[in-house]
């Protein structure tokens, strides 16, 4: 999944003004459907996944002008998966057994983790591209 997340964030940028912060949704007290559905409803992300991993994790591109942020970092991609949820398309391989959702942001893992912990979230942090892209996720990975 990390390789896919790298491809999601490269080349995507926009200024962070009038940002829509996803901090509260990344408190890991939600589920993939409740995280993704409002973003689809308000057209903050493109409805068609830009990538569907073999394990069925769906990655969505932020819609033009949506200016999504997470803990002060620009969001390059939003991802999620839950079994038997029609929002998520099935991949070609074995789907994840657990649900997951999150974002890929521009920033180093250490700086992202510091802000996430300062905000009180217990979300997982995974470096995607050293010093450049980091995933913030809840649930399986």
TrEMBL record:
<feature type="signal peptide">
    <location>
        <begin position="1"/>
        <end position="19"/>
    </location>
</feature>
<keyword id="KW-0732">Signal</keyword>
<protein>
    <recommendedName>
        <fullName>Adhesin</fullName>
    </recommendedName>
</protein>
